[in-house]
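User: I'm curious whether this sequence folds into something compact or stays loose and floppy. Could you predict its structure so I can see for myself?
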Amino acid sequence: MYVDAMDLRCSSCDVVADPLAWACPSCGGALDVPPIPLEGSPSGEGVWRYRDWLPAVDGISLGEPVTPLVRMPWDGLDLTLKLEGALPTGSFKDRGTAVLVSWLKAHGASSVVIDSSGNAGAALAAYSARAGLKCHVFAPASASPGKLRQIAAYGAELHAVPGTRQAVADAAVDHARVTGDVYASHAWHPMFIVGTRTFAFEAWERMGVPDAVVLPVGAGTLMLGIAHGFADLRAAGLTDRVPEIYAIQSTACAPLLADGREPVEVVVGDTAAEGIKIAHPPRGRAVIAHATDVLALDDDALWAAHARFRLAGVYTEPTSAIALAGLTNLAERLEGKKVLVPITATGLKSPA
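Assistant: Here's the prediction. I'll summarize afterward.
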């Protein structure tokens, strides 16, 4: 079991950080946790089925289910979708947030703050309400109205910020520094990624290890959780392989489409894929290192895939559709392989 006293450490300079810290106190780098041994056996349902493979804290839950797997025809590919919109607030962000809020509550947090384009904010608002924490959410004023209403519905204090996505992040960090509220960023705090590992665990139990995973990537927190989760399963001797991982970005914001190991500077344009509109992903180097390849597609491709899947019965938010669009570009590389695509959020988040 993952012990409560385990240190958070800087991925750059190895400095130990406080459990409520979101970045290295010395260099400002992203924090990581040591590899987690998979001891014990899964029991129960949903995220906390893997309690023995998660932090040893009282798990805060909203009844997370095992999300459905749906086989879908797509140009001859062996394609399975995992419908993360079935989670309590309608997106995969509930996986990481359930673990993150449980960790923060156990370590004395009483008020939290996040910046979010919508889904992470809704998840933090809901799980904070469940845990009895005060919650502030900074979101773009241009975010989907339904997402903003959902955040407010859980009782969080919503701060709609005009301007760029970076301006929203800066406002949330400034709030944390002034008030002492814990900055519970899904992009920064490593416990969020510890939680998204459960996507890989569920997939492994129900379909085995896919040959390839194709998904939308902004901050990369689901992708890194998937990569770490399958790597943990291999380290435990529960599988002998890990999948290829293809990260799909928008041409309007593709800092991970880089020739080397470092993200590149981009000028952010308009895109319906608001959930991956992250110009400066804090863990960009790690995402590039774990990706088999990174592709960028435009909104025409996004909407074509969105229409094709909703007419087949799968209603996804636009951000998820950009991964489905990527299947066409990857068709030759994925031929004959078992492919898994996370539908990261329900289309009801951003009706279109």
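Summary: The two ends are 43 Å apart (CA to CA). Confidence is low (pLDDT under 50) at residues 1-5.
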